[in-house]
């Protein structure tokens, strides 16, 4: 009965909304669903679950958002699924990040492009860091880059993504900005996730770590590693204010792993506006600021068309670097 | 003494009616999920996360619920291994080797209760290890660089021979096939897709669960279909259940095995790159090398059941060491648990013990409680589980097929995986016809990727110098064990075989 009642109410609301011609607030997804394009435990999974939980806690969603893990192809399986099979769904959002943009830029989702889906909004950014062990002789970013410049074989940099992935690109962006001639010579070692890469930094197998601030945070607190550069435009707030930016050390490199969502390409405008509104309401709330603070997420406040433009720009940037290092032609 | 005071506090947190109820619920659901082929511990935990959130549980109760599911699933995996020869999850694979033969000999009850006790022993010692040694053990994990990991995996493969077949060549073939299958997917060291044929589903490689369910469960169904078509044999297969508790003599015989395997499994769990499957595998193969003098392993030796079960449950506890002390997941399931910690606003990492002592010690106390609960749940339920054997195969097999399909589709939500599973089912059926053991295939797929990646990492770090592989004392020790483990059986094995032949002649007339 209640189910029927809500449906009628919903139908009425929808008719009312379209009749009056606007009012995105009226949009209520019948069965909100978030696809995390990876196995449980990763960043995308976290984005879906955390946002789902917070949306419900704050009454922005009346029902629990169902999280579906659709792993495979570094997000490509989920992307293809949404484009091919779920293109009309209004209840569906999908977690995305810089990794999504990187793969779209490098053509790693065969046959798919960014304009096949609708980009909703960002929920924060995780700025890239370059770190070394606490007892390392290296103490600034130029120190490290000089070593790489003089003898690229002397420094191994560990990261959690595959070669050509975002962790790899971050260190290349920095090397490029510092004037390292052939960035392909930078020795990058791919590990299964940032945690494993940090462990190997502590074990002394590698000399430097490239990853996200959130991955490094726990080890900085314990004094095991030191961050020699954070790839943000200016210094971050609060407890992260001690980390020098790359920029102030004369290396003009910025790398943010943003987190956000996209929806199906044929999502109705009402649904699109509704989701954008919900996510931006969430973003503006104090609770979300707390979540961001505890997880080392920095502000990145982009919605709707602005966000779409941002994704498109970062894809172009990644394509340029990838071409330079020969990952794509 | 600080430790014990903290542990006492932990028990004070964990021992509320709500938490005990949650632990009981978690243990029960976990056991079922572990027993169902396809649903393993990591999926089991992931499925229950929304439940924890919807119930509005705090950090400690949520963790109690979810770790009970984790431990429960590790217990449950053995049930289908023993009764049906279908591993419920990856680490339970080794239990098939002796567990199912025991069930066929009419000792299903003993096998189940003995493995329950072995699981308990493994988990119990691992939890103590976690309490007393976590800070020191982290240092061991830090001794393992890429070169050492490679040596460890090489050790696993070099002791593989004879684990599951009398024909070494077939074992080697199966392992090579597994290694080949592990190559599929995007190569992380170069970013190039291999053997994917432009199919995006294959970019992340093959899912082990899909391979296991296909190779073991579906091929079992195919074999049944074939047999039933040809003869009436399938109808008449009645198995005796045997007694429901293991006799004292069996316990006595297996006690040293359980203790050794607990220690080995725990160490394998502590290493972030190894995990529970390696734990149960190394426990089994080391135990076989040590005590299998009459060649009874693989034919229903109780020690062959106790070893992997103690090993994989100890590894489950061991995997919590890097998770709690470093914030680095030691297995797929701990990766999920870490994500839960994050969404509960707890930052895992080296400072977790000092910043959130209530969560850590509450969790550890909950592990003890869950472990006792599981023992209490599992031993009386042996009688219930064994009822499965009473179900005639013509009813059971369609259920196995259904659970396989639903389980795999439920995890990945993709019909592509179902096709892959059917492919593996056919492959498994063909290989069984040729008497090729299936376990090495899974081990190859499971460990092959990490082995290759660590080799290439080690070589890249040292600019192409192969001597880096034997550059540290630890890797030299590991290589020495690996080589001894490989060569010794070749020399000693011949003598043993000769002896077995004599005995075989005497017993031959009795067994068949």
Automatic annotation (TrEMBL), chain A:
It holds the Pfam family TctC. Keywords: Signal. InterPro entries: BUG (IPR005064), Bug_dom1 (IPR042100). It comes from the Bacteria. Residues 1-24 form the signal peptide. Belongs to the UPF0065 (bug) family. This is Putative tricarboxylic transport membrane protein. It comes from Salipiger thiooxidans. The lineage of its organism: Bacteria, Pseudomonadati, Pseudomonadota, Alphaproteobacteria, Rhodobacterales.
From TrEMBL, chain B:
Pfam families: TctA. This is Putative tricarboxylic transport membrane protein. The keyword ATP-binding does not apply. The chain crosses the membrane at residues 20-39, 45-71, 111-134, 140-160, 172-188, 208-225, 263-284, 323-347, 359-379, 399-427, 472-493. Residues 20-443 form the DUF112 domain. InterPro entries: DUF112_TM. The keyword Transmembrane applies. Keywords: Membrane, Transmembrane, Transmembrane helix.
């Amino acid at each position: 009965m209640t189910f029927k009642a809500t449906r009628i109410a919903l139908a009425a609301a929808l008719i009312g909304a379209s009749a009056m011609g606007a009012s995105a607030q009226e949009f209520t997804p019948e069965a909100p669903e978030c696809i995390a394009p990876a196995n449980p435990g990763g960043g995308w999974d976290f984005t879906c679950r955390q946002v789902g939980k917070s949306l419900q806690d704050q009454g922005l969603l009346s029902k629990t958002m169902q999280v579906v893990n659709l792993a495979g192809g570094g997000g490509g399986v989920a992307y293809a699924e949404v484009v091919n099979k779920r293109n009309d769904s209004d209840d569906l959002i999908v977690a995305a990040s810089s990794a999504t943009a990187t793969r779209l830029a490098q053509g790693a989702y065969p046959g798919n492009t960014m304009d096949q889906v609708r980009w909703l909004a960002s929920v924060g950014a995780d700025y890239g860091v370059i770190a070394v062990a606490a007892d390392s002789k290296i103490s600034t970013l130029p120190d490290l880059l000089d070593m790489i410049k003089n003898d690229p074989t002397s420094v191994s940099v560990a990261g959690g993504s595959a070669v050509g992935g975002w962790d790899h690109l971050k260190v290349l962006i920095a090397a490029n900005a510092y004037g390292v001639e052939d960035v392909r010579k930078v020795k990058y070692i791919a590990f299964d996730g940032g945690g494993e890469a940090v462990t190997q930094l502590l074990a002394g197998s590698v000399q430097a770590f490239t990853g996200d601030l959130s991955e490094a945070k726990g080890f900085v607190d314990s004094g095991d590693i030191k961050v020699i550069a954070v790839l943000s435009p200016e210094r971050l707030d609060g407890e992260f204010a001690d980390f020098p930016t790359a920029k102030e050390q004369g290396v003009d490199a910025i790398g943010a792993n943003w987190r956000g969502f996209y929806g199906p390409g044929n999502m109705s405008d009402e649904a699109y506006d509704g989701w954008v509104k919900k996510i931006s309401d969430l973003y503006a709330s104090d609770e979300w600021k707390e979540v961001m603070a505890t997880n080392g997420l920095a502000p990145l406040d982009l919605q709707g068309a602005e966000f779409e433009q941002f994704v498109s720009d970062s894809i172009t940037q990644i394509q340029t670097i990838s071409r330079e290092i020969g990952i794509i032609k | 003494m600080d430790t014990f005071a903290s542990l006492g506090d932990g028990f004070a947190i964990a021992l509320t009616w709500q938490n005990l109820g949650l632990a009981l619920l978690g243990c029960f659901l976990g056991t079922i999920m572990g027993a169902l082929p396809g649903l393993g511990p990591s999926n089991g935990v992931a499925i229950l996360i929304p439940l924890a959130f919807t119930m509005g549980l705090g950090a400690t109760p949520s963790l109690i619920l979810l770790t009970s599911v984790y431990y429960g699933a590790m217990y449950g995996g053995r049930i289908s291994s023993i009764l049906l020869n279908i591993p419920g999850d990856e680490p339970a694979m080794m239990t098939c080797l002796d567990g199912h033969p025991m069930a066929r000999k009419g000792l299903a009850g003993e096998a189940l209760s003995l493995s329950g006790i072995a699981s308990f022993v493994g988990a119990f010692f691992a939890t103590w290890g976690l309490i007393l040694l976590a800070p020191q053990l982290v240092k061991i994990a830090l001794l393992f660089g890429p070169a050492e990991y490679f040596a460890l995996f090489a050790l696993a493969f070099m002791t593989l021979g004879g684990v599951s077949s009398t024909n070494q060549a077939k074992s080697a073939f199966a392992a090579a096939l597994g290694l080949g299958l592990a190559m599929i997917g995007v190569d992380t060291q170069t970013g190039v897709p291999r053997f994917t044929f432009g199919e995006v589903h294959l970019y992340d490689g093959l899912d082990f669960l899909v391979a296991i369910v296909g190779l073991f469960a579906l091929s079992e169904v195919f074999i049944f279909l074939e047999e039933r078509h040809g003869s009436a044999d399938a109808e008449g297969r009645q198995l005796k259940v045997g007694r429901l508790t293991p006799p004292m003599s069996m316990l006595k015989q297996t006690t040293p095995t359980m203790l050794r395997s607990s220690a080995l499994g725990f160490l394998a769990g502590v290493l972030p790159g190894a995990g529970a499957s390696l734990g149960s595998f190394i426990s089994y193969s080391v135990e076989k090398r040590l005590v299998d003098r009459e060649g009874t392993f693989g034919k229903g030796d109780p020690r062959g059941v106790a070893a992997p079960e103690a090993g994989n449950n100890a590894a489950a506890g061991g995997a919590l060491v890097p998770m709690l002390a470093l914030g680095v997941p030691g297995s797929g399931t701990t990766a999920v648990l870490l994500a839960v910690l994050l969404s509960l606003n707890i930052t895992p990492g080296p400072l977790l013990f000092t910043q959130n002592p209530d969560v850590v010690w509450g969790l550890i106390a909950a592990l003890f409680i869950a472990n006792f609960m599981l023992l209490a749940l599992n031993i009386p339920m042996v009688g219930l589980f064994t009822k499965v054997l009473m179900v005639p195969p013509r009813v059971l097999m369609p259920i196995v097929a259904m659970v396989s399909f639903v389980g795999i589709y439920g995890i990945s939500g993709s019909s592509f995986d179902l096709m892959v599973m059917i492919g593996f089912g056919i492959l498994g059926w063909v290989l069984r016809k040729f008497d090729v053991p299936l376990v090495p295939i899974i081990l190859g797929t499971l460990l092959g990727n990490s082995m290759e990646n660590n080799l290439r990492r080690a070589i890249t770090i040292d600019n192409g110098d192969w001597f880096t592989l034997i550059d540290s004392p630890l890797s030299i020790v590991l290589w020495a064990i690996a080589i001894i483990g490989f060569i010794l059986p070749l020399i000693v094995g011949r003598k043993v075989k000769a002896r077995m032949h004599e005995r075989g002649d005497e017993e031959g007339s009795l067994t068949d």
